[in-house]
Amino acid sequence: xxxxxxxxxxxxxxxxxxxxxxxxxxxxxxxxxxxxxxxxxxxxxxxxxxxxxxxxxxxxxxxxxxxxxxxxxxxxxxxxxxxxxxxxxxxxxxxxxxxxxxxxxxxxxxxxxxxxxxxxxxxxxxxxxxxxxxxxxxxxxxxxxxxxxxxxxxxxxxxxxxxxxxxxxxxxxxxxxxxxxxxxxxxxxxxxxxxxxxxxxxxxxxxxxxxxxxxxxxxxxxxxxxxxxxxxxxxxxxxxxxxxxxxxxxxxxxxxxxxxxxxxxxxxxxxxxxxxxxxxxxxxxxxxxxxxxxxxxxxxxxxxxxxxxxxxxxxxxxxxxxxxxxx
Amino acid sequence: xxxxxxxxxxxxxxxxxxxxxxxxxxxxxxxxxxxxxxxxxxxxxxxxxxxxxxxxxxxxxxxxxxxxxxxxxxxxxxxxxxxxxxxxxxxxxxxxxxxxxxxxxxxxxxxxxxxxxxxxxxxxxxxxxxxxxxxxxxxxxxxxxxxxxxxxxxxxxxxxxxxxxxxxxxxxxxxxxxxxxxxxxxxxxxxxxxxxxxxxxxxxxxxxxxxxxxxxxxxxxxxxxxxxxxxxxxxxxxxxxxxxxxxxxxxxxxxxxxxxxxxxxxxxxxxxxxxxxxxxxxxxxxxxxxxxxxxxxxxxxxxxxxx
Lengths: 327, 307
Fold this sequence. Notes:
The complex is a heterodimer of chains A (327) and B (307). By secondary structure, chain A is mostly helical. Chain A contains 13 helices and two strands, in the order αααααβααααβαααα. Chain A has a two-stranded antiparallel sheet. In chain A, helix 2 packs parallel to helix 6. The two termini of chain A are 32 Å apart. Chain B is built from ten helices and two strands. Chain B has a two-stranded antiparallel sheet with strand order 1-2. The chains are: A mainly alpha (327), B mainly alpha (307). At the A-B interface, helix 5, helix 10 and helix 12 of A face helix 4, helix 8 and helix 10 of B.
């Protein structure tokens, strides 16, 4: 898939940026309470949940070069399973998490095995098609609200305790999951597997002739990415206490792609910044006018036409200019 | 039973024809320019809205249709000049994202101009009424008119693409645009013609559909995704493929929708059946697409000379 190569980010920036982001997030609730802006905690929780999903997409989109237009399906599976299990009275995370991981792994393995036979545009289209299938399947879940969606009458419990009900505890649990996902994906990226994955992105033919099983490497990344997105789905359902087919709509998948791109393809911490930027722009614009999408759409276009490397690339250029760049 | 089947087949054909009009432009633009235009569905929506506006304004169906087509074309060319032109040499990812942004904008703009509530426009008097097809089977004239108009356009398109010099260049462009450019053809002018033509076709489909559908923001998105399914099944860049695949998708979708309710009802109550079947039947065409891509990654009727 042809794409501009991601800008070279200095190792120091890549070490520092995530630390700064996570430290700011950890302090955010304290600041918010001091300023009396309690609703910011909820907004930031949402930012972090979507950041987890965007991070997982960055694994296959940024590092793997796979433009998946059906990533929202994984988030939807996680959200729906969390909602359904609560609805059926077994909404404990000790049940929910394994069930979601298994479901997402199966869905990812099945759809990935078919989609990855194709390349380029066909891959975009077939992932879109699978996403649409998931969307309409959710609509067909008559018992769980069908088109109208399902309202959760309680949040998931953890070993019987309703820990997610406390806003602050929930915030830090989400932050912990975000940090864990980041470390996991960064660990993967630096491993032999991650190098092989980037190799397949840059030159699949060469990797194949070197003896690597390209399909298997890509499929593994696809499945892992989907499982992480599923966890984000569990958190999302618990945050909004509502799930509906709209979570799986193709526009959601487009938004995830946008988050990864504004962050900077393949930079991982950029995906977190991208999710934050996306939601804060959305929040800011929707406070100004109900027609915020009429401003947001052109912003996306301008962004694509005039920037390269997203937020991560921008910060890299900025720090380079100030002489803080290369070690 | 038979009469219901005939009506559903006709409905399927009519949906297929509309899909073909949208997919033809999409597959040409994609085939010739290697450009993924998610905003193609927007042209369909604009066609419908403009038709509603001009038909109400002029009181004449034919005049309104003509005006709608002209304005849709102007808007399409304006968008090409402002946005699309700068994306032709970008990666597919950039194209997808930028045209996605354009969809957000136009959907919202339509909401601001015409409101979020669905609009409708009556079927013209000279095309209202029904045709009797054997005992007890009535079928609206207007839907026949859509099928006829669509077939006519398909025929014209075939003539242009297969029998004219421009058509020859378009076919050559779909096989190898760079080679055509190297042979001294003004490829940018060719792109412009192809784009304008695709825009007109999508606008025409939207305008024709306006009297039988509710015209609402976002109506283009649904059709766009169906059109993508069509061109992927038919083979990207292939007009012939788009035609057959559009009819196939139209039939599978319509027949699946009408019969799955009966099948699901065998297992559940009628209310649940309608809900469940509505979702399940929408999955059929995506299933079809996945199966086709699995066995024939280049589509069922790939265009010649394209690897």
